[in-house]
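note to self: dont lose this again. the chain is below, predicted strucutre after it. 766 aa total, dont forget to put it in the shared folder this time
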Amino acid sequence: MESMSLLDDLNPVQQKAVLQTEGPLLIFAGAGSGKTRVLTYRIAYLIQERGVSPWNIFAVTFTNKAADEMRERVERLLGRAAKGAWVSTFHSACVRILRHHIERLGFGRNFVIYDEQDQQRHLKAVMKELDLDFKLFPPRTVQSAIDHLKNQGVMPDQFVPADFNVFQKRVGLIYQRYQEDLRRNNALDFGDLLNFVLVLFRRFPEVLRSYQEQFHYILVDEFQDTNAIQYQLIRQLGKRFRNICVVGDDDQSIYRWRGAEIGNILNFGKDFPDAQVITLEQNYRSTKSILLAANEMVSKNRQRKKKNLWTENPDGERITYYSAANEADEARFVVEKIRSQCEPSFTKGFSEEPSRKYRDIAVFYRINAQSRAVEDELVKNRIPYTIVGGMKFYERKEIKDILAYLKVIANPSDALSLRRIINIPPRGIGERTLDKLEALSKERGVSLYEGLRLSIEEKWVSPLLRESLKEFVELLETFRKDARVLTVSELAKTVLTKTGYLQRLREERTEEAISRIENIEELVNVMAEFEEGNEEASLEAFLDRASLVTDVDLWEDKGNRVSLMTLHCAKGLEFPMVFIIGVEEGILPHYRRGEEIEDLEEERRLFYVGITRAKEKLFLSRTETRYTFGTTRSNRPSRFLEEIPSELVEEEERRKPSEAFFGEDEAWGFQGEGDGERLEQPLSSPFEPTADFSAHDEPQAPAGIAWAPEGFFPLRIGMRVRHPKFGEGWVSAVEGMDENQKATILFQSVGRKRLKVRSAPLEILK
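---
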């Protein structure tokens, strides 16, 4: 493809982004503005027009799916000329570097990668060994603390617990032992992959220099989601040539809770003062109505680069909003709309083809628990669906079992996987025996696998047990020899046959066993696909890919099914028709995120991500009551709904109105002090300019009234007020109704404030 025809596919701003090849470049790419196209055409332009070797290009993103798509697009443009470019995720790139150099850090090149489940099992084993109470030190909380330290690049010997903080001191102890055992197992977890590359570069500058010399051009996708370690890695690799192109959208930064730093994209110009800045604002995905709603809503955030997306797409339909009585009513509404779009209609005796396929539709929600009611209704109506981010394929028991065998074949030092398979099928080797063997192995300074061999040679165990261990070790040694000559799929089939794993499932003859057999067959299919046209289809490479797979990587639209997923999983996807359910206070924004301005802005960005996934039609819904943690709670419409212009919204009336009351502020997910007031009637629409947020049968102050020390009018929950410094907000909780009344007010600008009403210069708006 010639240069002009290459650029002809791009709009003028996209062309500018492709042609600006030298020096640091920051591209703000709004939702649906074609950032993947810009990145792929930029790579193609560098290779075809600038004569850059693919080997000198490093393009990095966050999911295997995105990396595969980018690689395939470049190859479609250039064919075999594109072969050799590094196009991968951060973690995959780091694995590739470590496979070549990790021996310098004292690990074997055949190291294995522990996924989230493996990490939890490993951590619990460490804590059990340290005799720590899981109730006092919940493993998930400890794991989260360790992950946070790794995201910040803090190694065990660098962590300094706060004085008198028992939890931090225990975390420090666990972290140290956790890493020691990982090293003994020749294993790394996700956080180690990036950290160890930085350690490698720091200890061995010549290794860093070799990659700096190799990567003349660096491209980073989804830059707003990078954490401190990832940004540090990019800066180090790009130090030699400084041709760093970062692409992202600060309005879609939604991973602060796992270490992402929105400041990386907002402050890029400070780190690279000579950086060029280009903003892609033309949207190719959504209708004008959807885009305008998204623009208006996200513009309320203060921590953002100002931009205004526009589109040449049609105006499209207005957004449909539905206020449901409860989850069941909300689910019925969703399924009714799906059926109306996807089932044939009959007019004048003729059948008309449905306007949409099930695959065109997605239902988004803030938390996984919200999917249950929708699932029930879909099942009742026999509508096929898939859940993205549900039970992951690679986390199913039978898949973990087979992968554990393959991990031990690749890396016999992996004690975690070895303990998993030693009794699959049953061999009469109990947990106490394994604990004893592992303790003896540690005393001798060898791996558990070597400990098994020594226990046979030195007769550590009874003759009967020794015979079982001998058969097991000999079987593994046979598999290790097979691995030298067999492909990954052939090796898996050999393991399944010689262990009798598949035969035992067939003999069960249950629905569950049949399902597990089907999953195993699918695993072998995945392996065969991995081997096709892949020159580096080694066992280690397959295990790396299986360990690094994400929820989005597993989603595919081949089947004709409705997609259900959380808003976080929806990022990077698009659908003609989208439902966002549970748009209510306490859920979106989520009450656990608190009322700090950073938390509220991230929740608003999350809603923005959901809205901008919709191409043609968007539905928003909330419930007046929701069953949560065994209690029926009343819910207020999300404050984000009020930020969408009412002229863009069409409200659908409830067919069967049901009485509902609004409870105390805790029911809305806020933790204000005091008992609060109860609203006895449903709230007005959030899209009505004159929506009344107080109880209808109670006296109100006239709009515009202000408090002064000499005048007092009590506040009530739901009132809208204005403060000269904090701006507009609404009352979420009150204490007392006399002149000593205190109120908790949620301000859009600064979050929650608790004020004494008499002395606060407040103005009642409604």
